[in-house]
C-alpha cells in the first residue's frame, strides 16, 4: 500500500438519539439511516469521506448485506473535527473522520459524557509529520521559526498543526505560550489574517499550506517533517453503534479499503474527483494524496501511529483541552482486522511508505511522469514549460513533497537539491562546503 481541526467547544448540547445506533431495534423491511461525519477539505480523510462518497462504495457494501433492512447514508460535511465529536457524543453521528489531536479530544469527550468512541481505522498518515507546515506571507522577511519570536502566529488550538507549532517552537528555544502571540483561528480565518497582515505566520494542516503556496499567497518556513514524529487521520465510531451494528461498520471499513485501493491505483483520477467535490485545485490534492504525495493511505492502525498518539496527549493536557486519555482503550483494531482479513491486515502492518520521487503532471495527461532525481525533473520542466500542469519534488532531507517552483533550491556541485523551507536548506548548506542556495530560475538554467 502507498501511501486537524480546531479544539471543540467545552459545551456540548446533548441531543436526542436519531442516528443508526438509535435504530438498533429496527427489523426486516425497515429503513435505517447511517450518519457519517467527514471533512471534505481535510483531504487526508478522503478514503473515509470525499472519495468514498463519490465512489458510492459504502452504499454498495450496505446493499450487499441482504439483511432485509434498507440503509440510507446521511453524509454530513464539516470544516473541522470538533463538531463531528459534538454530534457523535450526542448520538447524532455514527462514524466520523478527523486528525490525530481531534481524535484524542473525541476519545476524552466520549468518555466524559458516557458516550465512548473508538478509533477503528486510519486514513492518511505521514511518519515524519509532513502533513503540517508553518507558512508566512510571500514577501515576508521571516525565514525560520526563530524569526517568529514576538510575532503573531495563527493556528487552530487543539489541532495537529498546533501540536507541530508547539513542538517546533520548543526545539527552537521559544516558549510556545509566551514567546509568540498565538491567534486561535480556524484555517480559513487564519489564511485571511495572513493575507491581511494581521498574522505574521500560519501553522496549519493539510491542505491549507499547500493551497496557499500554490496560490502564491504564502511560502513555507517550516516543514513539519523536521520533527520526525508521525501525524495521521483516522476513523472513529461510537462504541454503542459498533456493537449494535457490527455488519454496518464492517461494510464501511470494507468500502474504505476499496476507496484506498482506488486511490492507490488511480491517483490522478482520485485527485480530480476530490477536487471536483471540494473546489480545491487538483494539483494541490495530488501534492498530498498523489502517487508519491505527502500522505500514505492505509486503513491499518500501525503501532507507530498509536505510539505517536500517546505522545500527543501531553500537548493537549498542557493546553487544558483534555486530561489523561486512555489511548489503549480508545484504539480498537478488531473491526478493520476483520474487514481486511487477519492475513492481509498483518501485511498492512508490515508495509512501509514508498520512497518519495519527483513527478511532472503534463496538461491533459491521466498519469504523471516520474523522475529518478530532481535535476532530471528540472530538465524536463525546462523543455515543457507551456505544457506542464504541475511539478513536484521531495525535500532532500525529509522527503516531504512540494511544488518544484515553490521549493528552496540548493546547488551542491552538479547536484540540484530541493527543500520545502529555507531553514532546512540552510541546515544542508551549513554541512556541505561549497553548497549554496540558488533561485528556481537558476536551477532550471543549470539543469538544462
Walk me through what this model shows.
This protein is α+β, with helices and mostly antiparallel strands. The chain folds into 3 domains: 20-127 and 230-350, 3-Layer(aba) Sandwich (D-Maltodextrin-Binding Protein, domain 2); 132-227, Periplasmic binding protein-like II (D-Maltodextrin-Binding Protein, domain 2), CATH 3.40.190; 358-447, no CATH class. The protein contains 18 helices and 18 strands. It has helices at residues 50-55, 57-63, 82-89, 100-112, 160-171, 187-196, 208-214, 239-244, 246-265, 267-278, 282-289, 303-318, 327-330, 334-340, 342-350, 374-383, 422-430, 440-447; strands at residues 31-38, 70-77, 95-99, 117-126, 132-136, 152-155, 181-184, 201-205, 219-223, 231-238, 296-297, 358-362, 369-371, 388-394, 401-403, 408-412, 415-419, 436-438. It has a 6-stranded mixed beta sheet with strand order 2-1-3-10-4-11, with helices on both faces. Helix 10 (267-278) crosses helix 11 (282-289). It is globular and about 70 Å long. Mean pLDDT is 93; it is low at 1-18 and 21-25.
* Head-to-tail CA distance between termini: 35 Å
What is the arithmetic mean of pLDDT?
93
Percent in strands? 15-25%
Helicity level = 25-40%
Poorly predicted regions: 1-18, 21-25
Protein structure class:
alpha+beta
- Might you state the CATH topology name of the largest domain? D-Maltodextrin-Binding Protein, domain 2
CATH homologous superfamily classification of the largest domain: Periplasmic binding protein-like II
CATH architecture of the largest domain: 3-Layer(aba) Sandwich
Strands in their spatial order, largest beta sheet: 2-1-3-10-4-11
What characterizes the major β-sheet?
6 strands, mixed
What CATH first level of the largest domain would be assigned? Alpha Beta
How many DSSP helices? Answer: 18
**Computed CA radius of gyration, to the nearest angstrom:** 22 Å
Q: Tally the structural domains.
A: 3
How many strand elements? 18
The general outline is globular
